[in-house]
Amino acid sequence: MSARSRRCAQALLVAVFLLGVQFVLADNGPLHQVLQTPPVKLGTSGGNVHDASKRFCCSGTLGVLVTKSGVNYILSNNHVLADTDTATVGDPISQPGLVDVGCDATKAQIVANFSEAIPLGSGNVDAALAQVNGSVDTTGTILDVGIPASTTAPLDATALGRGVAKSGRTTGLTCASIASISTNVRVQYQRGCGKGRKFTIIYLNQVLIAGSSFSAGGDSGSLIVTSDTAQPIALLFAGSSTVTVGNRISDVATALGVSFVGDSAHAVTCPIAAAAVAQGATAHGARISLSPVGLAHAMAAKERHVDRLMLDPAVQGVGVGASADDTSEPVIVIYLQEGMAHAPIPADLDGVRTQIVRTDEIRAFGWNETPQRGCSLK
Questions:
Q1: How many domains does the chain have?
Q2: Could you report the per-residue pLDDT of 109-166, keeping only the tens digit for each?
Q3: Is 240 a member of any domain?
Q4: Fewer CB within 10 Å, N- or C-terminus of the chain?
């Protein structure tokens, strides 16, 4: 075993040790980092076999099975399958990803080939497709989730506070609730695997999930579904220590022209610790019940002020959520980077109260974890 392979193997053991309780609670099936016997179930470690540099290798999650013109594809992120806009059509996609085989692609299996991606910064999504080669489960089964519903969930007044679940490479099955919708958010990328310039893209109208334990680096590409019906609602692509960011799944499906391989609606069996939240309760135990009229007013106020607010580098995002004091009251949620000076935040915008959430930088790689030398998680 090479020195780099030993480092990656040691890093994985350390991660499992440090996150041991989380793995026990969140992973209700086989570990999401191991080589599977085909047919491969999704929600598993994977990525482009060329997503590596001399010192690093990178991986994310193979999210969900979709279909386009009668052909099946794996849907994940551009920065997972397309190597952040640098991949060539036909590039092999492995399971598990390089980080879980000591950066040695010969120890993984090829399950798909990169097909197409929406260029980053051009379509308001971080999404890509890889055509499967026959070794992926054709039912669309996702580890710990089962077969997702074939219909998507609405992002309307019923979405805020709704319980959601995801199955990803690093944290397995986790459940939480939607913190804000219609959220403009800045996300940091890096051009290469553990190297190259860093750059920021501002996304509009994204879905933000509350909580520090919902995701971590390596979960990029996971499908986020409603926990009570397993309907796709967002595609996970970034996060911080306090929130997870997903593209609206309707935007992803429209941009790529795909539909979901799925079945009828069903509930996801969430870890016990997250079950109450996943069933639609807030941290205070009360269900969110916003009126469509109140939500529309808050969204209009957010749109009138968001561009000005986002000029402040400390503002990581601006969206619409429900008040922590009164879950029937819509608020404009402003995500501020911890430790950065910022301009004064008004108490309300056009009569809609503001609510501040402190967070660290929102990134498309390595969030919510300690980076490991030689390995990088997306």
A1: 1
A2: 999 999 999 999 999 999 999 999 999 999 999 999 999 999 999 998 889 999 999 9
A3: no
A4: N
